[in-house]
Specification:
By secondary structure, the chain is α/β, with parallel strands linked by helices. It has 20 helices and 19 strands.
Length: 561
């Protein structure tokens, strides 16, 4: 791993520190994020809901809002159709809450991952017609094809598609109401999650009806969870949504979340995006991946305590099953990889099996990508169809590669570093061949992982002021990375390995006769051949952890030499 430390001059830091009224360390970190003007700094440090963009910047927002109002005035029933992941489930639940609260008759439909197609289709249109639905609003997904949309229209169902996945505008898009920041010419922020786009639709509706948007923001924690789960860039509107959504979560109006936080023992802690990613989202996601997807939306919508209790118990059960399936697939994949004579030179991993569950291969692909440092494609095969999940590494944009070879897929979608496709089994070998050619032709400079260091800082200098400054820069995520510091002359006193294949470790480290607890994820390989654990260099960030009811500093090591 290559360490990169691009220094900023002390004179510039001093000058801007005085101008902005910020500490030297915070100033340096802000400059590293290429913020140079006081107005931009204030907006970044104080991400306020008033900074959200005008929803009517979307070309068809006015048309969409008027269509919803028309159905409301006619007392017609509207159905929200959401994808089966956390983003789609949360977007669905949010719209159900905010529509019902203003008297709109609203139902919802989440397809079953194992039994149904991705995207709104004719079968779903028939079901919604049988339930007297007059308008379908898709969230985090589109329709299978324009034929499905035309069919829905022919049986008296209007459609509003809200989506955020990468796509190219097609002529048929003009036949229906489509709200998608990726293909909008007038909406300047392109990286909203599916839940974020649902929020913009609700904003537009409430503004047109003259209803206070404060009624929307009561449920901003739902949108926040979907946004964090979808791993979108943590900038602009996403930063505002997540920062304010985390605050709403502390006093959530959602019964399911109240009880889930209690189960996780999060009531009295400062919840971070890491907590959402590693604890809250997987539980909700387990229902969409292993169980009945609709129950995930029920979790956010249901108010009956007993029903919520049962849903959380189901989440726990499904999550255990998910973990078992993941371990089984992971072990099988490792065996397949290690059976190659020489896998050390591989630039990608491409594996397929009839024994794998399509709902969990994405998580396994992510773990394998971390372990081997290359893009990983895992394919679950059933009935001559392969469903693939891909997680990327080393700056390889898998979505762009898939877009170049889309004629080989039944369908595909996703993002730069996480994508998937569905293809006929007969095409899988051809897809691998083309993928291999494209990966091998990429710039070799991208092959070595680089870790960006913000500045050198002794762990002995960690204090409350530093943690407060770091808090001002949060929430962290894609495009707003956690600040990383370099320190030297570190001694690791104790090591306790844990996790699958002992890939993590924790213990006590020391500098200048002061001791600190530390934890290092996915770094066991970095210390495997070290004989001397003194005079080490570490890249790290400080955090606070709760131990036996008391807070203490902890060092999160990101790299070690």
């Amino acid at each position: 791993m290559l360490w990169k430390n691009s220094n900023i001059s002390d004179s510039l830091v001093k000058k801007k520190s005085i101008e902005w009224g910020t500490s030297n360390i915070l100033t340096r970190l802000l400059l590293k994020k290429e913020l140079t003007e006081k107005e931009d700094v204030n907006k970044f440090i104080n991400p306020d809901l008033s900074q959200l963009r005008d929803p009517f910047e979307f070309e068809k927002m006015e048309e969409a809002v008027l269509k919803i109002i028309e159905k409301k005035n006619n007392h017609d029933k509207i159905y929200i159709y959401g994808d089966y992941d956390v983003d789609g489930i949360s977007a669905t639940a949010f719209l159900v809450h905010v529509f019902r609260s203003i008297g709109i008759k609203t139902g919802y439909y989440i397809p079953n991952r194992m039994e149904e197609n991705y995207g709104f289709d004719k079968k779903t249109a028939d079901f919604i017609k049988s339930k007297n639905g007059k308008l379908v609003i898709t969230v985090d997904t589109g329709a299978n094809s324009i034929d499905d949309i035309r069919y829905a229209k022919s049986i008296g169902i209007d459609l509003i598609v809200t989506d955020h996945h990468k796509s190219e505008k097609e002529k048929s898009d003009d036949e229906y109401i489509l709200i998608n920041p990726k293909i909008s010419k007038t909406y300047k922020f392109k990286y909203l999650s599916g839940a974020g786009v649902a929020l913009k639709l609700a904003q537009g509706l409430y503004r047109k009806l003259g209803i206070s948007e404060e009624n929307l923001y009561k449920y901003l924690d739902i949108i926040m969870i979907g946004t964090v789960a979808d791993v979108v860039p943590m900038i602009d509107e996403n930063r505002i949504i997540i920062s304010n959504g985390l605050n709403v979560l502390k006093k959530t109006n959602v019964n399911g979340l109240f009880y889930l936080l209690k189960y996780l023992k999060f009531q009295n802690k400062r919840i971070t995006t890491t907590d959402v990613s590693y604890f809250i989202s997987p539980l909700i996601n387990s229902l969409g991946r292993i169980g009945i997807s609709k129950v995930g939306a029920d979790f956010f919508i249901e108010n009956d305590d007993f029903k919520i209790y049962n849903i959380i118990e189901e989440m726990k059960k499904m999550n255990k099953i998910r973990r078992r399936l993941e371990k089984k697939i992971f072990d099988e994949a490792i065996e397949m990889i290690e059976s190659h004579v020489d896998n050390s030179q591989e630039k990608y991993i491409y594996l397929k099996s009839k024994n794998w569950h399509p709902g969990v291969i994405g998580v396994v692909a992510s773990r394998l990508s971390i372990k081997y440092g290359v893009p990983v494609i895992l394919i679950a095969i059933s009935n001559d169809i392969g469903k693939a999940s891909c997680r990327s590494s080393n700056g390889v944009n898998v979505f762009n590669i898939f877009a170049d070879i889309k004629e080989n897929f039944i369908r595909f979608g996703g993002h730069d570093l996480a994508a998937g496709f569905v293809a006929k089994v007969e095409n899988l070998d051809k897809i691998e061949k083309i993928f291999a050619e494209k990966v091998n032709n990429l710039d070799k400079e991208k092959e070595r992982e680089v870790i960006e260091i913000d500045t050198e800082l002794s762990i002995n200098d960690i204090d409350e002021n530093l943690l407060e400054d770091m808090k001002k820069l949060s929430p962290y995520g894609l495009s707003n990375k956690q600040p990383l510091f370099l320190d030297k002359n570190i001694e690791i006193k104790t090591i306790e390995k844990f996790g699958v294949e002992d890939r993590h470790f924790s213990g006590i480290l020391r500098k200048n006769n002061k001791e600190y607890s530390y934890i290092a994820f996915n770094l066991s390989n970095e210390i495997k051949n070290m004989k001397d654990l003194k005079n080490l260099k570490i890249v790290y960030y400080p955090e606070k952890i709760m131990v036996k009811g008391k807070e203490r500093y902890n060092i999160r090591i990101k790299s070690i030499k």
